[in-house]
Every structure is written in C-alpha cells, then in structure tokens.
C-alpha cells in the first residue's frame, strides 16, 4: 500500500499539449532564459513548469488525497469558469470548463476535477501564459494548499531541490509556481547563471533591467571611443559588421609553395536578388591566388572550394595537401588565427536595408595592423590578479566535443585574432575599471548592487565572446553569424571563419547583447518575486539537512552527450576576469572536473581521472542516493533524461535503482524541434523522458517469471498511448523504459527460480524485445507478424524506430531562430567553414542505428544481424540499413548502370537517405534481365517491384506481379502498405512503393 497520496504526475499527464508548447518554446527568444547566457541542453520552461505542478499537487482521484487540497482545487477551478478567466484558456480546456460553468457540481466528481487540473497545467505550459496573473495566482494557491495538506507548516512553502541545476530552468519554474528552490551545481558558470536568475532578479526586479540598460549603454559609448579606429567605417559611411577570413597554409606540391587560403564556403549570400560568392584568379608565374567577390554570379564563375574534409587542393598545381599536413602547418602557428587571409567585408548602410558585401580595402588592413600593435601593450596587464589576455590551457584533445587542439590551439587565447582579443579585453577593463565603479558609487549604489550590475554585464561579454572567436561560421542562407558555441555540444575547428564587429550595430554587437539580457530580466521579474538559494557543490555531497525537501526534480548530465565542464571554460576564462571574486570562484584556474559526472570513455590525462560508464553510474547513484535523503516523508523525485545510446540509458536506470529509488511513472515530453538538422537522417531523440520516482521503502523480492509475465501487458498498454500522443520511433522505445522499470524497481531485487539475482541489463533486453514485438503489431495493423520473414520484420521496425514528427511544427515554430546565432541542432563539418549539415551520410549507408540498439531490436524480433549481410552493414559502433538502391545488385544480379550526368546536377527528388538538399546526386537507372529470379523473401520481392517501377519497366512489373504470381501473396501487399506508411513523404522510396500499390487494382489483384 502507498504511504502517500499519488501526485497528478503519477496518474496522468497531458503530454501532447505540453509537448506542443515545449517545441514552440524552442523558437521563442525575447525574454527567454536561453538568451541570458549560453548553457547546454536547457529544458524548456514549459515542460518544467508543467511537471513541477503535477509533481507537487495530489491527484484528487487517489483515495488518500487530502480533502483540504480537494476543496481548494475545486474553488480555484470554479474561478476559471468565470468569463474573464474562461477566455484565457485554450480551446480544449474551454469546452470542459464551459460544462462546469453550467453545472458546477461536476467538480465534485474527482475525475472531473482532476481533468480540470490537467487542463490548467497544459494551458499554463504555454509561454504566453507564464506571466499572466491569473495563472500565477492559481498555481501558487494550489502549491501552497498541497504543501499544507501534505503536512507542511502553515506559512512555509514546499522546497524543490535541483542538484544538477545547470541552466536553471527547474529552479526558476519552481519559484514561478510558488515553491522555494534550492539550486546547486559543481560548475561555477552554472552557479552564476542561477544566482542571477533566482537570487538577483527576484530581489531587484525591473530596476535591475533598467540599470543593465543604462550602464550597458555607458560601456558601449566608452568602447566605441576606444575601438572605433580598429573597425573603420567605409568612405560612404557604411559600417562593417563582419569580416570573412580563411586560415592559410603553404602548398606542399613539388616546386609550388603557394599560399593557399583554406576556403570551404564559397557563397556569402544566397538571396535570389542579391547573391554573392567568391571567385578566384590564378597567377601561375608568381604562384599567387587572388580571391574576388562576385555579385549575382553566373554559372561557372564561382570558385571551387579549396578545403574539403580538412585537406586542401592547390588551385595552381592541383596538389592536395592531406589533412594531417594541414594540421601540422597550422599547429606550428597555434591555429593560424593571426596569419589568416581577409576575404570579404560585410557592411550595412542605414537607411538602406539589407547587407552589402565588398572586397577588403586598405583601411581594413591598416586597422588590423594597428590592433596587433595595440594588443602587444596588453601582454603584461593583469586584472583580478590574472593576466588580462586568457592564457589558460584549453581542454586536452579527447575531451568531449573538442577537435581544434590538433591544429595547435592549445590556449584559449589562440582561438582569437588580435583584434578580437583587443575588443574583448577592452570590455573587460571597462566593466572592472575604476571609472565605472566610481560612477556607480557616486550615484549611491552600495557594494552589493555594484557587483550584481557588473555580473549581469558580464553575461553580455559572454554573449559577445560567443560571436567573437575564430570558430564562428557565416551562414549564407541566413546571412548571419553562427556562434562559436551557441548551445552546441561541440567545438570543431573552422578553417574559414567570420569575425563580428562588436560595436557594429548588428549580430555580435554589444548593444544587442545588453538588450537580450534586459529582456530576460524583465520577463522573470514580471512573474517571480520570491528568491531562491544557490550554492556551488557537487551533487554527490548535498549540504541541506535530511527530510527537508518536498521534491527533488533534476535534469542530470546525459552520460556522454555534453562535456559541460570543458565547454563552459570557453566562457569561464572571461567571466573570472570580469566578475567580482566574491560572486564567482575565480581562483579556480579551471572549471572543476574531478567530481563531474560524465562519461568520456577514458582518462584524458589532465588530472580529472577516469571518466567512463562505471564512474558515471557510480557517481550518479551516489548523487541520487544522497539527495533522496533530503526528501520529507511525502517527498517525490523526478529525473529528466535523454540519450540515444542504450549504454546511457542503462547507466541512468541502474543509478536510479542503486540510489534507492523506485520508478512510479514516466512521461516523454517533446523538447526538440522535429525539423532540426540532427533529426533528418538519424535516430536523434525529440523527447526527454521524465522519470517519476519515490524512495524505495520495501524490502520485497520479485519473482523473475512474474515480472516477465507482467511486462508485455504494460508495454501493450503504453505504446499505443504514446502513438496517440504523437510519440513514435526511438522516442517511444526509450519512453517505454520508464513504465517497464516501474515493474522491476518496485522490488528491492528480482530473483530467478534458482535464487540468482536478475541484473538490470538482462531485464532491459527483455524490455527491448517486448517493445519491438508490440511496435511491429502496430506497424502491421494487428496482422500476424510471424508470417513475415525476419528481414521484413527488422526493416519495418528499423524504419519505425527512425520515424519522428517530420514536418510537424507547433504553432508559431520556425525552422531557424530569430537570433543571429544558431542553436544546438546545427551541424558543422570540420574543415568546411560555414557549410551547414552537408556531410553526406546517406546514399551508401542507409539509415543508421547504434549497433547495440539494432542488436536488441533484431534479437527481440528473432532476427540475427550477422545473418542479414545483404540488408544490414555494421560499421564500427553503428549498424546501417541498406537503401533499396544499394540492394540492386543483390536483387537482380548483374546490373547495367547508366553514365552519370554532368557534375553538380541535383537529384530531381531527394531520396530517403539524403542528408540535405545540397547533396549532389546523379540520375540513376538499371536494366534488369528479363529472366531475373524473384527474391527469396517477401522483403526482397517488394524491393524488386519498387526498382522495376522506378526504372519504368511496366511490362516487367506486370509479369512479376501477375504471371509469376508474386502479387497473389497478401503478405506482399501488406508489407508494401506498411512501407508506404513508414517512408517519409518526400522520399523516392515512398513514391516507388506507392507506385507499386497503385498498380494492384489495375492488374486485377
């Protein structure tokens, strides 16, 4: 028996509606905390707000739900039946509340009342409602009522603890809905973010936003005076806003030695009416390469990229310097930032609209020389006891997401040109300068207020830094700068980069960053008034007393997805120079790493020690166990997790069990845009799974046979529910791990008949099998799936696993941000400068899954990967489902291919496996012999029919289906119909299989 009333989140959750708001939030910028400063994988506020409410409020349908809470909940929900509030509800909620308006006694029924609470939570998740008084008042009243009804002292608030606070979404939303929040993190950058959001802003409110704008403007004016000569305006008054550069090497071709600019991105603007690209001219005699700018270039005039995959092909002698040699040359010059070649300048000229492009002029080169000279005077300067120019070591090669060390970038200062360093150090000196401090003192600010204003201004420096390093890219399609980090989980090397003008009035400009920060302060101040508490501590060693928290709600590190400590050092080295030592522990020369819980897979040799699966699991288990002790008798836990590797999931689930928790519910909430680049051709997850936990209080042994018997029914109940909510594919598979764990974790241990304990890994194998079988039943609409051979079952399940919400955008969502930076979803191809997502993953590999996931799926379907070499190829840690094209030779034997069309022609229609519309392809066809043999399996025959349709061989297709009797087999058509539903609408395979299906009726089949 439960010793506590279930919370709403343990009973149900409107995940589809919450997910829609969470996805939409990815496109919201103005006022959103993501624009305060960079942090990685922040949870959407919509999801956090919803799950915190649902975790704190009891479920009225639970027999032990306190009557006092039910009474308050009924009163609050009746308020929403009044016209002035009814209009604030979403359409789905309005219908239910209109019924209660006519018949108030409906809320006497626990079911109706509970559904009303879910409606409220779903609508409160909407960003537009997050600052509305009516929603805030109701949520806080319900939170307080729940707290007191569950034993909390009158006048106190429930405490929500987040031991991995990170970007601060959870603590901030806890405050918003009326709880107290204690946020802690090992990372000093995360701690600083949380201090500003949940300590400073609630205390100082709108006044802080005004002060940030005021003093941000003062710093802008001072910076313009000091930096103007280094960013000279054009003779016609146009302002340079960005400069395009390429690192250079010396051609290693015999007798050549020309200087080669490592240009991978040749387009600057792809605007149809105002396009620009790079052209080149060669002086063979003097071995020089001149780069020119082409306006609305004609076909054939745009230069070919010089850099490709890190190697460089000399336009003069055609010799290709291999990637290792390119790296070696740049290594000798610490990455070559200051020996790069200026290619073009981007300007604006108000009141004219749009951006203009021009070739470099003499004043540009003069300004660059001056900046080098001026920076030399700063080499010996110090600030806060540190060198003014950050000379700290970068993370070692092998740290998660880092690649630039191979090119000689060993210290953080190597990431910048001299002019960039000059600009950043100028802002540092202004914020930390005596003049700024004395002005604040003269106006009556005390020491604490001065430090808080300076801290907020430091975030503007962090944002400028993100757009002012040599790892920034230029995006021709957006005509905007892609930030160095911008929320990405990696920092690859960029050979052709863009330099922003921080006083230019466009992307990367100081004033723009101040505006973003002030908007966030205003938004938080309008909806949060009570402050939280923040401390820098490791999650394994909490400092709060036991039995004090109502909930532990946290979003822990995602195994090997993000190297938080290493990534944050890019910002930390600047923050420790500009934030007061009493606010930020600047004496730490590096972000702490020894206690960080992350899986790198090795010891990178910098003193942090081994960081692998075992250390991750042990560290996470300890953290969860220690924080479990903080909960009071009624306490609840919530762990948010997302990782597409089976190892990552097994590690977090084992940690939950070892930490003494039992899973009582789990909910997948879509938190990523479905059209992001990573989701196009891989099993990238679009959802984060919210695992609801309670402290394990029983010492009961489970019987392995009973557990296995209960599992299929749980999956059968859960998977169709997920599909109805729009959760499919890999998202659904991992979302099923939660309810499966509900069965396993209710026992202190599970034993087999002989007394041997069942390890979690063995149970999860059974879970994957159960999920695979249930999903296959859904794919084939209840048909007897045992009638299909293993290759058909595996192919259908594989395609289903890779399916997602392709093309489904929440209202108001955009495919790109409205900021001048791109988010965590953009791909970068090392050595290709700004080329975005054009790494071809497709035509020769098919769809990829992590090998272990593929193995588990196959095993669950009774298939064996090693016996399906004509369908599956295993490459390293990935397994690839071959495309239909790539199976042609196997299916038809000797095939005559046509000659490729001229270079550069695009495919008329993208295939299922194209990585992006920019991937070049050729028309393709084959001429099968008339006496080819039908395939052995149903899958082979469906693929053969698709290829016959593609080649236009109508007669051969007719003979195949009618005369050879292939079309008489109902399984053939059922499999083809399933593929029609599984292939993306824009793929060639979808068109081919639909073409075959369209022939069925005409052929009398």
Range of strand content: 5-15%
Mean of the pLDDT scores? 87
- Residue stretches low in confidence (pLDDT < 50, at least 5 long) are 674-684, 805-845, 896-924
| 3D shape | globular
Number of strands: 28
Terminal residue distance: 59 Å
Q: In words, what does this structure look like?
A:
- The radius of gyration is 30 Å and the shape is globular.
- Mean pLDDT is 87; it is low at 674-684, 805-845 and 896-924.
- It is built from 29 helices and 28 strands.
- Helix 11 crosses helix 12 (418-432) and helix 28 packs antiparallel against helix 29.
- It is of the alpha+beta class and 1005 residues long.
- Helices cover 40% and strands 13% of the residues.
- It has a domain at 780-807 and 830-1002.
- Strand 4 and strand 5 (259-261) form a beta hairpin.
- The strands form 9 sheets. The chain has a 7-stranded mixed beta sheet with strand order 19-2-1-20-21-23-22, with helices on both faces.
- It starts with 14 loop residues before the first helix and ends with a helix.
Task: Describe the structure concisely.
This protein is α+β, with helices and mostly antiparallel strands and 1005 residues long. Helix content is 40%, strand content 13%. Helix 8 (169-176) links the parallel strand 1 (159-162) and strand 2 (180-185).
Features:
1005 residues; alpha+beta; seven-stranded mixed β-sheet; four-stranded antiparallel β-sheet; 28 strands; globular
How do the strands and helices of this protein lay out in sequence?
Elements: H1 15-25, H2 45-56, H3 67-79, H4 83-86, H5 91-102, H6 110-124, H7 133-149, E1 159-162, H8 169-176, E2 180-185, H9 188-227, E3 239-246, E4 248-250, E5 259-261, E6 267-269, E7 276-283, E8 288-295, E9 307-308, E10 311-313, E11 320-321, H10 323-332, E12 341-348, E13 356-358, H11 362-376, E14 382-383, E15 386-387, H12 418-432, H13 434-442, H14 447-466, E16 473-475, E17 480-482, E18 496-500, H15 510-525, E19 533-536, E20 549-554, H16 564-578, H17 613-628, E21 631-641, H18 646-658, E22 661-670, E23 687-695, E24 701-703, H19 704-724, H20 729-735, H21 737-745, E25 749-751, H22 760-779, H23 790-802, E26 847-850, H24 851-860, E27 872-875, E28 878-881, H25 888-892, H26 938-950, H27 954-963, H28 970-982, H29 988-1002
């Amino acid at each position: 028996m439960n010793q506590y009333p279930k919370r709403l989140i343990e009973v149900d959750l409107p995940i589809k509606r919450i997910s829609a708001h969470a996805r939409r939030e990815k496109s919201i910028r103005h006022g959103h905390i993501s624009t305060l400063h960079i942090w990685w994988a922040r949870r959407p506020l919509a999801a956090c707000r919803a799950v915190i409410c649902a975790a704190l409020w009891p479920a009225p349908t639970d027999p032990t739900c306190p009557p006092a809470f039910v009474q308050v909940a009924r009163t609050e929900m009746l308020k929403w039946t009044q016209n002035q509030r009814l209009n604030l509800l979403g359409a789905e909620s309005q219908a239910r509340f209109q019924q209660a308006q006519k018949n108030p006694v409906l809320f006497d029924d626990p079911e109706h009342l509970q559904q009303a609470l879910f409606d409220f939570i779903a609508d409160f998740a909407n960003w537009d409602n997050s600052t509305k008084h009516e929603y805030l008042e109701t949520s806080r009243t319900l939170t307080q009522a729940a707290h007191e009804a569950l034993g909390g002292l009158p006048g106190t608030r429930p405490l929500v603890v987040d031991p991995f606070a990170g970007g601060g979404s959870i603590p901030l939303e806890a405050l918003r809905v009326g709880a107290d929040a204690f946020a802690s993190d090992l990372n000093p950058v995360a701690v600083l973010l949380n201090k500003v959001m949940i300590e400073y802003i609630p205390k100082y409110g709108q006044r802080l936003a005004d002060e940030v704008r005021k003093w941000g403007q003062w710093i802008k004016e001072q910076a313009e005076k000091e930096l103007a000569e280094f960013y000279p305006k054009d003779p016609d008054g146009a302002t340079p806003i960005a400069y395009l550069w390429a690192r250079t090497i010396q051609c290693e071709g015999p007798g050549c030695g020309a200087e080669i600019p490592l240009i991978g991105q040749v387009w600057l603007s792809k605007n149809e009416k105002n396009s620009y690209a790079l052209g080149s001219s060669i002086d063979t005699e003097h071995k020089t390469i001149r780069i020119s700018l082409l306006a609305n270039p004609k076909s054939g005039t745009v230069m070919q990229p010089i850099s490709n995959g890190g190697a460089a092909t000399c336009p003069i002698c055609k010799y290709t310097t291999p990637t290792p040699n390119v790296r070696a040359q740049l290594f000798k010059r610490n990455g070559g930032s200051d020996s790069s070649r200026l290619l073009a300048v981007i300007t604006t000229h108000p009141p004219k609209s749009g951006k203009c492009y021009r070739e470099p002029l003499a004043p540009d080169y003069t300004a660059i020389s001056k900046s080098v000279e001026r920076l030399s005077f700063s080499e010996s300067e110090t600030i806060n006891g540190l060198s003014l120019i950050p000379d700290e070591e970068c993370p070692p090669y092998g740290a998660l997401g880092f690649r630039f060390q191979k090119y000689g970038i060993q210290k953080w200062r190597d990431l910048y040109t001299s002019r960039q360093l000059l600009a950043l150090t100028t802002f540092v000196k202004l914020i930390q300068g005596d003049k700024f401090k004395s002005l604040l003192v003269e106006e009556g600010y005390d020491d604490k207020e001065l430090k808080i204003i300076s801290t907020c201004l430091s975030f503007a420096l962090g944002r400028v830094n993100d757009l002012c390093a040599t790892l920034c890219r230029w995006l021709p399609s957006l005509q905007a700068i892609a930030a160095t980090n911008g929320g990405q989980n990696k920092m690859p090397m960029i050979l052709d980069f863009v330099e922003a003008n921080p006083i230019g009035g466009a992307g990367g400009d100081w004033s723009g960053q101040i505006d973003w920060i002030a908007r966030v302060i205003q938004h938080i101040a309008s909806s949060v008034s009570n402050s939280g508490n923040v401390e820098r501590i490791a999650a394994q060693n909490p400092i709060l007393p036991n039995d004090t928290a109502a909930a532990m709600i946290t979003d822990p590190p995602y195994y090997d997805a993000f190297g938080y400590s290493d990534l944050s050092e890019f910002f930390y080295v600047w923050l420790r120079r500009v934030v007061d030592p009493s606010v930020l522990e600047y004496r730490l020369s590096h972000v702490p790493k020894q206690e960080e819980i992350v899986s790198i897979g090795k010891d990178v040799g910098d003193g942090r020690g081994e960081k692998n699966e075992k250390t991750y699991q042990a560290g996470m288990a300890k953290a969860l166990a220690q924080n479990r002790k903080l909960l009071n008798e009624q306490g609840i836990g919530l762990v948010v997790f997302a990782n597409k590797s089976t190892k990552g999931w097994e590690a977090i689930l084992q940690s939950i069990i070892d930490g003494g928790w039992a899973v009582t519910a789990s909910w997948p909430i879509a938190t990523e845009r479905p059209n992001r680049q990573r989701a196009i051709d891989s099993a990238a997850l679009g959802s984060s799974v919210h695992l609801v936990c309670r402290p394990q209080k029983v010492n009961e042994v489970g019987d392995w046979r009973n557990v296995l018997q209960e599992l299929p029914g749980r999956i059968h109940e859960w998977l169709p529910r997920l599909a109805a909510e729009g959760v499919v594919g890999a998202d659904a598979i991992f979302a099923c791990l939660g309810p499966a764990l509900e069965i396993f974790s209710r026992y202190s241990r599970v034993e087999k008949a002989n007394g041997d304990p069942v390890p979690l890994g063995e149970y999860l194998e059974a879970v994957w099998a159960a999920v695979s079988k249930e999903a296959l039943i859904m794919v084939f609409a209840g048909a007897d799936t045992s009638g299909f051979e293993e290759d058909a079952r595996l192919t259908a399940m594989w395609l289903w696993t890779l399916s997602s919400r392709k093309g489904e955008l929440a209202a108001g969502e955009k495919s790109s941000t409205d900021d001048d930076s791109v988010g965590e979803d953009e791909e970068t191809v090392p050595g290709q400068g700004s080329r975005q997502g054009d790494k071809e993953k497709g035509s020769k590999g098919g769809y990829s899954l992590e090998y272990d996931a593929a193995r588990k799926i196959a095993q669950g379907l009774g298939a064996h990967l090693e016996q399906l070499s004509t369908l599956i190829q295993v490459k390293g840690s990935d397994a690839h489902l071959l495309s239909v094209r790539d199976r042609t030779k196997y299916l038809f034997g000797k095939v005559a291919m046509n000659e490729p069309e001229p270079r550069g022609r695009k495919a008329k229609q993208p295939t299922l496996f194209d990585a992006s519309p920019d991937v070049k392809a050729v028309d393709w066809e084959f001429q099968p012999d008339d006496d080819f043999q039908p395939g052995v399996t149903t899958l082979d025959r469906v693929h053969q029919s698709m290829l016959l349709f593609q080649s236009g061989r109508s007669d051969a297709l007719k003979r195949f289906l009618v005369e050879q009797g292939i079309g008489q087999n109902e399984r053939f058509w059922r499999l083809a119909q399933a593929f029609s539903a599984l292939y993306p609408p824009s793929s060639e395979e979808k068109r081919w299989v639909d073409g075959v299906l369209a022939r069925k009726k005409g052929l009398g089949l």
